[in-house]
Amino acid sequence: MRIVVTAKYVPDINTERGFSEGRVVRTAGEGTLNELDENAIEAALRIVEAERAAGRIGPDEGEVVVVTMAGPDGDVALRKAFQLGVDRGIRVSDDALAGSDYFGTAAVLAAAVRRLGDEAPVDLVVTGMAALDGLGSVVPTLLGAELGLPTLNLAKKVELAEPADPGQRVLTITREIDDVTESLTAPLPAVLSVTDGANQPRFPGFKLIMAARSKEIEVWSPADLGLDPAVAGSAGARTETLTAAPRPARPEVELVTDKGEGGVALADFLIRNDLV
Ligand SMILES: Cc1cc2nc3c(=O)[nH]c(=O)nc-3n(C[C@H](O)[C@H](O)[C@H](O)COP(=O)(O)OP(=O)(O)OC[C@H]3O[C@@H](n4cnc5c(N)ncnc54)[C@H](O)[C@@H]3O)c2cc1C
Hints:
Layout: E1 2-6, E2 9-11, E3 19-20, E4 23-24, E5 31-33, H1 35-53, E6 63-69, H2 75-84, E7 88-92, H3 102-119, E8 124-128, H4 139-147, E9 151-155, E10 157-160, E11 170-177, E12 180-187, E13 190-194, H5 206-214, E14 217-220, H6 233-236, H7 262-272
Helix pairs in contact: 2-5, 3-4
The chain binds flavin-adenine dinucleotide.
The site of flavin-adenine dinucleotide (FAD) has 29 residues, from helix 1, strand 6, helix 3, strand 8 and helix 4.
Protein backbone atom coordinates (compact mmCIF):
# COMPACT_ATOMS: atom_id res chain seq x y z
CA MET A 1 0.00 0.00 0.00
CA ARG A 2 1.72 3.18 -1.22
CA ILE A 3 0.02 6.46 -0.44
CA VAL A 4 0.95 9.98 -1.55
CA VAL A 5 -0.33 12.85 0.61
CA THR A 6 -0.32 16.41 -0.71
CA ALA A 7 0.33 18.97 1.99
CA LYS A 8 0.53 22.74 1.74
CA TYR A 9 2.81 25.15 3.54
CA VAL A 10 0.59 28.05 4.62
CA PRO A 11 0.96 31.24 6.67
CA ASP A 12 0.27 30.48 10.33
CA ILE A 13 -3.27 31.71 10.99
CA ASN A 14 -2.08 33.21 14.29
CA THR A 15 0.30 35.57 12.51
CA GLU A 16 -0.43 38.83 10.71
CA ARG A 17 -1.17 37.76 7.11
CA GLY A 18 -1.07 40.06 4.16
CA PHE A 19 -0.72 40.46 0.46
CA SER A 20 2.03 42.01 -1.60
CA GLU A 21 1.68 42.50 -5.36
CA GLY A 22 -1.44 40.32 -5.33
CA ARG A 23 0.28 37.43 -3.60
CA VAL A 24 0.09 36.13 -0.07
CA VAL A 25 3.10 37.27 1.94
CA ARG A 26 4.82 34.09 3.07
CA THR A 27 7.20 35.35 5.76
CA ALA A 28 10.04 32.97 6.60
CA GLY A 29 9.46 31.31 9.95
CA GLU A 30 5.78 32.32 10.06
CA GLY A 31 4.41 29.43 8.06
CA THR A 32 3.27 25.98 9.01
CA LEU A 33 1.83 22.72 7.72
CA ASN A 34 -1.76 23.33 6.59
CA GLU A 35 -3.71 22.06 9.60
CA LEU A 36 -6.29 20.29 7.43
CA ASP A 37 -3.51 18.28 5.81
CA GLU A 38 -2.73 16.73 9.19
CA ASN A 39 -6.04 14.89 8.80
CA ALA A 40 -4.92 13.71 5.36
CA ILE A 41 -1.62 12.43 6.79
CA GLU A 42 -3.44 10.72 9.67
CA ALA A 43 -5.86 9.02 7.24
CA ALA A 44 -2.96 7.71 5.13
CA LEU A 45 -0.99 6.42 8.14
CA ARG A 46 -4.07 4.63 9.48
CA ILE A 47 -4.72 2.88 6.14
CA VAL A 48 -1.16 1.58 5.98
CA GLU A 49 -1.26 0.52 9.65
CA ALA A 50 -4.57 -1.30 9.06
CA GLU A 51 -3.08 -3.14 6.07
CA ARG A 52 -0.15 -4.24 8.23
CA ALA A 53 -2.43 -5.22 11.12
CA ALA A 54 -4.54 -7.32 8.72
CA GLY A 55 -1.40 -9.02 7.46
CA ARG A 56 -2.08 -7.88 3.91
CA ILE A 57 1.36 -6.27 3.88
CA GLY A 58 4.45 -7.03 5.95
CA PRO A 59 5.41 -4.96 9.02
CA ASP A 60 8.00 -3.02 6.97
CA GLU A 61 5.91 -2.71 3.85
CA GLY A 62 3.65 0.16 2.92
CA GLU A 63 4.75 3.76 2.50
CA VAL A 64 3.37 7.26 3.05
CA VAL A 65 5.03 9.97 0.94
CA VAL A 66 4.23 13.65 1.44
CA VAL A 67 4.55 16.10 -1.45
CA THR A 68 4.43 19.88 -1.16
CA MET A 69 4.76 22.57 -3.80
CA ALA A 70 6.49 25.40 -1.97
CA GLY A 71 9.62 27.50 -1.62
CA PRO A 72 12.46 26.38 0.72
CA ASP A 73 10.39 27.44 3.77
CA GLY A 74 8.05 24.61 2.85
CA ASP A 75 10.48 22.27 4.63
CA VAL A 76 8.73 23.36 7.84
CA ALA A 77 5.60 21.57 6.62
CA LEU A 78 7.54 18.42 5.66
CA ARG A 79 9.34 18.27 9.02
CA LYS A 80 5.96 18.43 10.76
CA ALA A 81 4.79 15.59 8.51
CA PHE A 82 7.88 13.56 9.48
CA GLN A 83 7.01 14.13 13.15
CA LEU A 84 3.62 12.57 12.46
CA GLY A 85 5.29 9.50 11.03
CA VAL A 86 5.41 9.78 7.25
CA ASP A 87 8.21 7.91 5.49
CA ARG A 88 9.32 10.37 2.82
CA GLY A 89 9.07 14.11 2.11
CA ILE A 90 9.34 15.79 -1.27
CA ARG A 91 9.32 19.51 -1.99
CA VAL A 92 8.67 20.62 -5.55
CA SER A 93 10.33 23.97 -5.84
CA ASP A 94 11.20 26.58 -8.43
CA ASP A 95 10.82 30.35 -8.49
CA ALA A 96 8.83 29.89 -11.69
CA LEU A 97 6.09 28.16 -9.66
CA ALA A 98 5.29 31.28 -7.65
CA GLY A 99 1.81 32.64 -8.41
CA SER A 100 0.43 29.26 -9.44
CA ASP A 101 -3.31 29.13 -9.63
CA TYR A 102 -5.46 26.09 -8.82
CA PHE A 103 -4.79 24.52 -12.21
CA GLY A 104 -1.05 25.10 -12.03
CA THR A 105 -0.87 23.70 -8.50
CA ALA A 106 -2.79 20.59 -9.52
CA ALA A 107 -0.62 20.11 -12.62
CA VAL A 108 2.58 20.24 -10.53
CA LEU A 109 1.27 17.89 -7.84
CA ALA A 110 0.00 15.46 -10.50
CA ALA A 111 3.41 15.43 -12.18
CA ALA A 112 5.02 14.61 -8.82
CA VAL A 113 2.56 11.72 -8.27
CA ARG A 114 3.27 10.42 -11.76
CA ARG A 115 7.01 10.50 -11.11
CA LEU A 116 6.50 8.56 -7.86
CA GLY A 117 4.35 6.14 -9.87
CA ASP A 118 7.30 5.55 -12.20
CA GLU A 119 9.25 4.23 -9.20
CA ALA A 120 6.47 1.92 -7.93
CA PRO A 121 2.67 1.87 -8.11
CA VAL A 122 0.82 4.55 -6.11
CA ASP A 123 -2.41 3.11 -4.67
CA LEU A 124 -3.95 6.29 -3.27
CA VAL A 125 -3.49 10.09 -3.22
CA VAL A 126 -4.85 11.80 -0.11
CA THR A 127 -5.38 15.54 0.34
CA GLY A 128 -6.87 17.82 2.96
CA MET A 129 -10.33 19.30 2.40
CA ALA A 130 -8.85 22.81 1.86
CA ALA A 131 -5.78 24.94 2.31
CA LEU A 132 -6.34 27.49 5.07
CA ASP A 133 -4.92 30.32 2.95
CA GLY A 134 -6.51 29.83 -0.50
CA LEU A 135 -9.61 27.98 0.88
CA GLY A 136 -10.40 26.94 -2.69
CA SER A 137 -11.10 23.26 -1.90
CA VAL A 138 -10.59 22.58 -5.61
CA VAL A 139 -7.10 21.11 -5.91
CA PRO A 140 -8.22 17.56 -5.00
CA THR A 141 -10.72 17.47 -7.87
CA LEU A 142 -8.29 19.05 -10.34
CA LEU A 143 -5.65 16.52 -9.21
CA GLY A 144 -8.04 13.65 -9.94
CA ALA A 145 -8.76 15.12 -13.36
CA GLU A 146 -5.04 15.56 -14.11
CA LEU A 147 -4.30 11.97 -13.07
CA GLY A 148 -7.43 10.51 -14.69
CA LEU A 149 -8.39 8.94 -11.35
CA PRO A 150 -11.71 8.69 -9.53
CA THR A 151 -11.93 11.33 -6.82
CA LEU A 152 -13.77 10.95 -3.53
CA ASN A 153 -14.04 14.28 -1.75
CA LEU A 154 -14.80 15.48 1.75
CA ALA A 155 -14.70 12.07 3.39
CA LYS A 156 -15.73 11.88 7.02
CA LYS A 157 -15.33 8.12 7.11
CA VAL A 158 -12.92 6.07 5.00
CA GLU A 159 -13.08 2.30 4.49
CA LEU A 160 -10.83 0.12 2.39
CA ALA A 161 -12.84 -3.02 1.82
CA GLU A 162 -11.46 -6.53 2.15
CA PRO A 163 -10.10 -7.37 -1.30
CA ALA A 164 -12.62 -9.60 -3.13
CA ASP A 165 -10.01 -9.87 -5.85
CA PRO A 166 -6.47 -9.20 -4.48
CA GLY A 167 -5.69 -7.03 -7.50
CA GLN A 168 -8.67 -4.80 -6.99
CA ARG A 169 -9.13 -2.69 -3.85
CA VAL A 170 -12.25 -0.66 -3.34
CA LEU A 171 -12.42 2.50 -1.27
CA THR A 172 -15.70 3.59 0.30
CA ILE A 173 -16.26 6.95 1.95
CA THR A 174 -19.11 8.45 3.90
CA ARG A 175 -19.64 12.20 3.83
CA GLU A 176 -22.16 14.64 5.18
CA ILE A 177 -23.27 17.54 3.03
CA ASP A 178 -25.98 19.69 4.57
CA ASP A 179 -28.37 17.13 6.06
CA VAL A 180 -27.58 14.38 3.58
CA THR A 181 -25.23 11.49 4.34
CA GLU A 182 -23.70 10.05 1.21
CA SER A 183 -21.70 6.92 0.70
CA LEU A 184 -19.45 6.77 -2.34
CA THR A 185 -17.17 4.05 -3.58
CA ALA A 186 -14.40 3.80 -6.14
CA PRO A 187 -11.64 1.36 -7.11
CA LEU A 188 -8.02 2.18 -6.33
CA PRO A 189 -5.97 3.97 -7.45
CA ALA A 190 -7.98 7.06 -6.52
CA VAL A 191 -7.75 10.58 -5.10
CA LEU A 192 -9.31 11.11 -1.67
CA SER A 193 -9.85 14.32 0.29
CA VAL A 194 -10.70 14.01 3.99
CA THR A 195 -12.41 16.50 6.28
CA ASP A 196 -11.21 17.65 9.68
CA GLY A 197 -13.98 15.46 11.12
CA ALA A 198 -12.46 12.29 9.66
CA ASN A 199 -9.94 11.74 12.44
CA GLN A 200 -7.92 13.25 15.26
CA PRO A 201 -4.31 13.58 14.06
CA ARG A 202 -1.88 11.82 16.39
CA PHE A 203 0.50 13.71 18.65
CA PRO A 204 4.10 13.36 17.53
CA GLY A 205 6.19 11.10 19.76
CA PHE A 206 9.55 12.26 21.10
CA LYS A 207 11.47 9.73 18.94
CA LEU A 208 9.81 10.96 15.74
CA ILE A 209 10.26 14.62 16.72
CA MET A 210 13.99 14.03 17.08
CA ALA A 211 14.26 11.96 13.91
CA ALA A 212 12.30 14.56 11.91
CA ARG A 213 15.03 17.15 12.46
CA SER A 214 17.59 15.37 10.29
CA LYS A 215 15.41 13.29 7.98
CA GLU A 216 16.23 13.85 4.32
CA ILE A 217 13.97 16.13 2.27
CA GLU A 218 14.08 15.51 -1.48
CA VAL A 219 13.79 18.61 -3.66
CA TRP A 220 12.42 18.22 -7.16
CA SER A 221 12.21 20.87 -9.87
CA PRO A 222 9.59 21.13 -12.62
CA ALA A 223 12.33 19.88 -14.99
CA ASP A 224 12.77 16.76 -12.80
CA LEU A 225 9.07 16.13 -13.39
CA GLY A 226 9.27 16.73 -17.12
CA LEU A 227 6.81 19.55 -16.56
CA ASP A 228 6.44 22.42 -19.00
CA PRO A 229 6.99 25.45 -16.70
CA ALA A 230 4.37 27.33 -18.70
CA VAL A 231 1.57 25.29 -17.10
CA ALA A 232 2.26 26.65 -13.64
CA GLY A 233 3.37 29.81 -11.88
CA SER A 234 2.07 33.22 -12.85
CA ALA A 235 3.03 32.34 -16.45
CA GLY A 236 0.42 29.60 -16.50
CA ALA A 237 -2.15 31.22 -14.22
CA ARG A 238 -5.63 31.66 -15.69
CA THR A 239 -6.53 34.13 -12.97
CA GLU A 240 -4.84 37.30 -11.88
CA THR A 241 -5.24 39.10 -8.60
CA LEU A 242 -5.98 42.71 -9.55
CA THR A 243 -6.19 44.21 -6.10
CA ALA A 244 -5.73 42.90 -2.60
CA ALA A 245 -6.25 45.32 0.24
CA PRO A 246 -6.72 44.79 3.96
CA ARG A 247 -10.38 44.49 4.81
CA PRO A 248 -11.69 47.75 6.32
CA ALA A 249 -11.69 47.67 10.11
CA ARG A 250 -15.03 46.76 11.61
CA PRO A 251 -16.90 49.79 12.97
CA GLU A 252 -17.05 50.15 16.78
CA VAL A 253 -19.83 48.06 18.31
CA GLU A 254 -22.57 50.24 19.81
CA LEU A 255 -23.81 48.66 23.02
CA VAL A 256 -27.30 49.61 24.20
CA THR A 257 -28.63 48.61 27.62
CA ASP A 258 -32.37 48.28 27.24
CA LYS A 259 -34.08 50.15 30.01
CA GLY A 260 -37.39 50.19 28.05
CA GLU A 261 -36.02 52.36 25.21
CA GLY A 262 -34.19 49.53 23.46
CA GLY A 263 -36.60 49.41 20.55
CA VAL A 264 -36.30 53.15 19.95
CA ALA A 265 -32.50 52.98 20.14
CA LEU A 266 -32.46 50.08 17.64
CA ALA A 267 -34.76 51.88 15.21
CA ASP A 268 -32.61 54.99 15.54
CA PHE A 269 -29.45 52.98 14.86
CA LEU A 270 -30.98 51.33 11.76
CA ILE A 271 -32.11 54.69 10.38
CA ARG A 272 -28.83 56.43 11.19
CA ASN A 273 -26.90 53.65 9.32
CA ASP A 274 -29.31 53.48 6.36
CA LEU A 275 -30.20 49.93 7.24
CA VAL A 276 -33.89 50.39 6.66
C1 LIG B 1 -6.34 34.00 -0.65
C2 LIG B 1 -6.05 33.26 -1.93
C3 LIG B 1 -6.99 33.26 -2.94
C4 LIG B 1 -6.72 32.56 -4.12
N1 LIG B 1 -7.66 32.60 -5.09
C5 LIG B 1 -7.44 31.90 -6.20
C6 LIG B 1 -8.43 31.88 -7.23
O1 LIG B 1 -9.50 32.48 -7.09
N2 LIG B 1 -8.18 31.17 -8.35
C7 LIG B 1 -7.02 30.47 -8.49
O2 LIG B 1 -6.89 29.80 -9.50
N3 LIG B 1 -6.06 30.44 -7.54
C8 LIG B 1 -6.24 31.15 -6.42
N4 LIG B 1 -5.31 31.16 -5.47
C9 LIG B 1 -4.11 30.44 -5.70
C10 LIG B 1 -4.20 29.12 -4.98
O3 LIG B 1 -3.85 29.34 -3.71
C11 LIG B 1 -3.22 28.12 -5.37
O4 LIG B 1 -3.44 27.64 -6.55
C12 LIG B 1 -3.11 27.01 -4.34
O5 LIG B 1 -1.97 26.47 -4.34
C13 LIG B 1 -4.27 26.02 -4.32
O6 LIG B 1 -5.41 26.57 -3.91
P1 LIG B 1 -5.91 26.52 -2.42
O7 LIG B 1 -4.89 27.07 -1.55
O8 LIG B 1 -7.24 27.14 -2.38
O9 LIG B 1 -5.98 24.96 -2.15
P2 LIG B 1 -7.23 24.01 -1.92
O10 LIG B 1 -7.89 23.66 -3.19
O11 LIG B 1 -8.10 24.52 -0.83
O12 LIG B 1 -6.37 22.75 -1.37
C14 LIG B 1 -6.93 21.55 -1.08
C15 LIG B 1 -5.80 20.59 -0.78
O13 LIG B 1 -4.90 20.52 -1.90
C16 LIG B 1 -3.56 20.32 -1.45
N5 LIG B 1 -2.73 21.47 -1.85
C17 LIG B 1 -3.10 22.73 -2.23
N6 LIG B 1 -2.02 23.50 -2.53
C18 LIG B 1 -0.94 22.70 -2.33
C19 LIG B 1 0.47 22.86 -2.45
N7 LIG B 1 1.00 24.05 -2.86
N8 LIG B 1 1.30 21.83 -2.14
C20 LIG B 1 0.80 20.63 -1.75
N9 LIG B 1 -0.52 20.39 -1.60
C21 LIG B 1 -1.38 21.41 -1.89
C22 LIG B 1 -3.63 20.23 0.08
O14 LIG B 1 -3.75 18.86 0.44
C23 LIG B 1 -4.93 20.96 0.40
O15 LIG B 1 -5.52 20.50 1.60
C24 LIG B 1 -5.53 31.85 -4.29
C25 LIG B 1 -4.59 31.85 -3.25
C26 LIG B 1 -4.86 32.52 -2.09
C27 LIG B 1 -3.88 32.44 -0.98
